[in-house]
Specification:
Length: 193
Amino acid sequence: MAVLQHELTLGEAADLLARALPGHRVEILQGRLTVTPPPDGSRALSLTKLGRAFDRAGIVEAGREYVQGIGLWLPTLPEDFAIPDFSVVDEDFRDAHVTENYYAPDVFRLVVEVTSSNWADDLGPKAECYAAAGIPVYVVADRKHDEVLVYQDPVDGRYPAPARYKRGTTVPVPESVGVTVEFSVDTLLDGDD
């Protein structure tokens, strides 16, 4: 009896992993499949508090929305995509649907990642991919190194060196996002006020 074997594409492998690992985030960054564990309580609380601060700042009145866990199509390689922890997007972002659950990068104004066990992806490949996609502001709550980094205004597909913020300070959100708001580094790192 002959057995036909089918080699999976990277996208097909990502779909299989996503179904096999509920709650995990499966992404393709620079042609590499990555899997992020479900958020822990501190990470989830950080993102909730981030949303509340954007609500208070009037994000909807500014013509923007914030969302958690929607797909961002990346122009780096044909199957590349990311699923940021938190994003500020144009209110009509759904009109920029590319494929499956992924949206064009031009509707993203800010992307936030709160690091987990695979923190190196947030500091390396994601920073490179988000810059190549032209994401205006990328914020990394780097729990491994106990700081928050703010990358902004990519030039020729690269971010300049990030601004770095330590515990006990606040992080101003760049005006290009559409609202004036600051976040406590401590809140971004561990969900505490």
